[in-house]
Structure formats: structure tokens, C-alpha cells
């Protein structure tokens, strides 16, 4: 079964303040197979963030359908949302909380009962156990990114989506993050990531979809795609 299924998805941002309407997605269809690392590759402005924001429930689609873990985002929005963990690009936690507190607060927002919380386990999965009680502001850039990933795991979603996980990070940190994504996937999580680095998609992904100007222009197992280049 597909972890994510998208059919004829379109998004038009309305014209405003002199800017014309923008067709950010022009009828995109694809499936993300369960258990894979799936790369959504494309240049800036291609529509990647729009697609992710629709899945996250942050942007309203104009037409088409999307389902997550079998739950249609219109018909079963709560179940759809519970089935996905989104890792945003920007750091979104309070610098004066500790990683442990950040995860406990996030669990609270999701309504995860105290007894069912696994904050320490999740911190261990992202290799932050030794920083559990440090102020987030004292973490290195790499540790902050791992904490962002940890936040997306709090409700134990079967699917996580990472938006440009390695944008602006150095080579060493990029490799660390790749390792971590591989570990999470080996642990059973289906991963979708967006990137504009072909090398990143090649190294990491089982399958790559390429999006450009709001249209899907390829969708193949990585081996086949690279064979064509
Ligand atoms: P990517 O993530 O691939 O860089 P985006 O989804 O951010 O692409 O953007 C796709 C297109 O939609 C771009 O032309 C962008 O300028 C436009 N766009 C994105 N968000 C908005 C918005 N809120 N209002 C109007 N246009 C937008
Ligand atoms: P923990 O005790 O938190 O489970 P480990 O013992 O697995 O962490 O790792 C200790 C240190 O090694 C971490 O602080 C981290 O900096 C680094 N490390 C190990 N594996 C990874 C990885 N896949 N990604 C990032 N950092 C890692």
C-alpha cells in the first residue's frame, strides 16, 4: 500500500497586490511506497513546499486529492495529520527550553498521555540523549536539526516529511543527517524529503520524483533515474 497517495493535486495562489495568480502545482499525481525513502527533487520555486504544506494541513489545495496512510486529507483530516510528522526548515522551538521539555510540550499538544510519552527514547534515536537537559539555545546547529526531527517523531507517525533537511549545512553535518534519516527508515518509518541537491537524492533515496514549474516530470526508482543521466 502507498504511504502517501496524491492525485491531480493543484494549487493556485490567488492574485494579490499587483502580483498575478500563481499556479504552484498544476495537477500532480504520485504514490510514495510504504517503507521507502522518497525524494522530491526540484529547483527553487518548483512547488515542493506547497505540496508539503498541503500534506501538513497548512495550505489549502485548489483541487485534486491527497491521502496519508490511507486517510484522505479532506475526509479524515485528523487521522491524516496523526499519520505524518513534518520536519520544517526553520528552527521552531523555544531556546530556553531543553530538548526533553520541547518533546514533552509537543507531546502535550498532540494529546499524547503522560504514560505513553517516549521523549527519552526519541532523544536517543536522534542521538541527543546527552543533551536532554541542556537549553536548546546551547545546542550546535546539527543538534538543533536533530531536535527538529525528534519533534516530528513524538506522535510516532508512520511517515515523516523533511523539507530541505540539509539546506545550508556543511558536508560533515549533511552526512550525519543522511545517516540519521537512514536509521529512522531502517526503524520502519517511511521518509519523504525535498531537496534541490541531486547528489542528496541519489545517495539517500529509493525513489526520486522530479518536480518543475508545478509539474511532475519524472518519478522513478533511483537506479533507473541515474542510469538515464
Ligand atoms: P519550492 O518549495 O519548490 O521552492 P514553493 O512551493 O515554495 O516552491 O513555490 C512554488 C511557487 O509558488 C513559487 O513561484 C512561489 O513564488 C509561489 N508561492 C509560494 N507560496 C506562495 C504564496 N503564499 N503566495 C503566492 N505565491 C506563492
Ligand atoms: P545517544 O547516547 O544520545 O543515543 P549515541 O551514543 O548514539 O547517542 O551517539 C553519541 C554522539 O555521536 C551523539 O552526541 C552524536 O553527536 C553522534 N552521533 C552518532 N550517530 C549519529 C548520527 N547518525 N547522526 C548524528 N550524530 C550522531
Automatic annotation (TrEMBL):
A Gene Ontology molecular function term of the record: ATP binding
Keywords (A to Z) from UniProt: ATP-binding, Nucleotide-binding, Transport
Keyword Ion transport in record: no
Sequence intervals crossing the membrane: none
Domain annotation ABC transporter: ranges: 4-229
Keyword Zinc in annotation: no
Protein name in UniProt: ABC-2 type transport system ATP-binding protein
Positions spanned in the full protein: 4 to 232 of 315
Amino acid at each position: 500500500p502507498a504511504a502517501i497517495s496524491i492525485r491531480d493535486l493543484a494549487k493556485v495562489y490567488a492574485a494579490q497586490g499587483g502580483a498575478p495568480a500563481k499556479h504552484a502545482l498544476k495537477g500532480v499525481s504520485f504514490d510514495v511506497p510504504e517503507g521507502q525513502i522518497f525524494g522530491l527533487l526540484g529547483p527553487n520555486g518548483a512547488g515542493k513546499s506547497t505540496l508539503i504544506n498541503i500534506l501538513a494541513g497548512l495550505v489549502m489545495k485548489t483541487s485534486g486529492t491527497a491521502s496519508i496512510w490511507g486517510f484522505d486529507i479532506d475526509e479524515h483530516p485528523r487521522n491524516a495529520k496523526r499519520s505524518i510528522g513534518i520536519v520544517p526548515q526553520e528552527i521552531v522551538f523555544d531556546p530556553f527550553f531543553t530538548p526533553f521539555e520541547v518533546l514533552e510540550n509537543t507531546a502535550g499538544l498532540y494529546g499524547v498521555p503522560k504514560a505513553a510519552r517516549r521523549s527519552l527514547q526519541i532523544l536517543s534515536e536522534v542521538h541527543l540523549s546527552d543533551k536532554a537537559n541542556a537549553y536548546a539555545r546551547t545546542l550546535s546547529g546539527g543538534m538543533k536539526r536533530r531536535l527538529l526531527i525528534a519533534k516530528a517523531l513524538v506522535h510516532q507517525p508512520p511517515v515523516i516529511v523533511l523539507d530541505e533537511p540539509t539546506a545550508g549545512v556543511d558536508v560533515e553535518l549533511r552526512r550525519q543527517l543522511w545517516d540519521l534519516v537512514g536509521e529512522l527508515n531502517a526503524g520502519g518509518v517511511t521518509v519523504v524529503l525535498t531537496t534541490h541537491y541531486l547528489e542528496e537524492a541519489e545517495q539517500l533515496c529509493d525513489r526520486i520524483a522530479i518536480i518543475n514549474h508545478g509539474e511532475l516530470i519524472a518519478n522513478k526508482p533511483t537506479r533507473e533515474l541515474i542510469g538515464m543521466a
